[in-house]
Amino acid sequence: MWAVRADDRDPRPWIAGAVVCPALARREIRHTGVGRMKLPFEIVRTKLGGSYFLACFGGEGRVLVDGRWTRCSPGEAFLLPPGTLHAFRGTGREGWDHCWVRYQEAAGHAPLAAAQTPVLAEFDPEPLKSAILGLYHEARGAAHPAAIDHWCDLVHLYVLRFAQPATMDGRVLRLWELVAADLARAWSATDLAAEAHLGEKQLQRLCVRHLGRTPHQHLIWLRMRRAAELLADGAKVGAAAARVGYQNPFVFSSTFKRVIGCSPSEYPARKR
Asked: Would you list the DSSP string of 149-178?
């Protein structure tokens, strides 16, 4: 593993030997690195505080997001939102080769992983991998400030390019902005397709391509994300459920726990 971190405050053994590079903090990056994970390998995070980007360049793994396991193969990447349950598991016989960037967005700053951000999409990992390794070697060697700043900017730029794809279909973008503003509505697949002026199958193909989720999965994620914000602000469970379109509190609670990783009643304390 070749890892770089913004400071040395994290005492966990796996990152204790990472090179310290304070310049990462100016990009809200907590740590980044390149690693080959031998089997058996699994990480579970129940309290992820910032956005997390992972790109695979060898082997194969599985990522748990939105309560479902999804394959991550070479040439694919994930960008996972903060505040939800995440897990990673190596599955390939030769292990799992990937690079990652862990963000820690400052209070009041919008997370990198937002409503229109892809979850899973195609991604060429080689430029990012090279930038991370360049930063690692510079930070542990000459540590020239200008060179370090350039490497940090490149690392952030490659993740940002994935997070804000210029090629996203405008109809998909406008649809989810509309849905996010009216989550209490009983959205059906037909409604979503009609608002986007697309056929249902065409909308599904575009959402999977641009967001890594089907329309139904993305609707659930938007609802749970908004419900988490409401609960953190002091809303009662029933009121939060109704605000995001759930009349049955039991269905809401089970969905929330599957996506976020804890029950709605537990979430405010965990968030604090």
From this structure: HHHHHHHHHHHHHHHS-TT--HHHHHHHHH
This prediction has a pTM of: 0.77
Please give the single-letter amino acid code of residue 224. M
Over residues 212-231, the pLDDT tens digits come to 789 998 999 889 888 988 99
pLDDT mean across residues, the chain: 88
Q: 200-211 and 189-196 are packed helices; what angle lies between their axes, rounded to 10 degrees?
A: 80
Burial 150-159 (b: 16+ CB within 10 A, else e): bbbbbbbebb
Which pLDDT score, from 0 to 100, does residue 210 have? 77
- Judging by DSSP bridges, how do beta strands 61-65 and 68-72 pair with one another? antiparallel
User: Which are the contacts of 11, defined by CB distance < 8 A and separation ≥ 6?
Assistant: none
Handedness of CA 187, 189, 194, 197 (dihedral sign): positive
| Tens-place pLDDT, residues 122-145 | 899 999 999 999 999 999 999 999
User: In the chain, which residue ranges form alpha helices assigned H by DSSP?
Assistant: 126-140, 145-163, 170-180, 189-196, 200-211, 215-232, 237-243, 249-260, 267-271
- Cα distances (angstroms) measured from residue 144 to each of 32, 39, 132: 19, 37, 16
Structure tokens at 143: 């540590």
Give the span between the Cα atoms of 217 and 225, in whole angstroms: 12
Q: Which amino acid is at 80?
A: L
Q: Are strands 19-20 and 2-5 parallel, antiparallel or unpaired?
A: parallel
Cα separations (Å) of 166 from 76, 191, 272?
A: 18, 26, 36
Please, what are the domains in the chain? 2-163 (2.60.120.280), 170-271 (1.10.10.60)
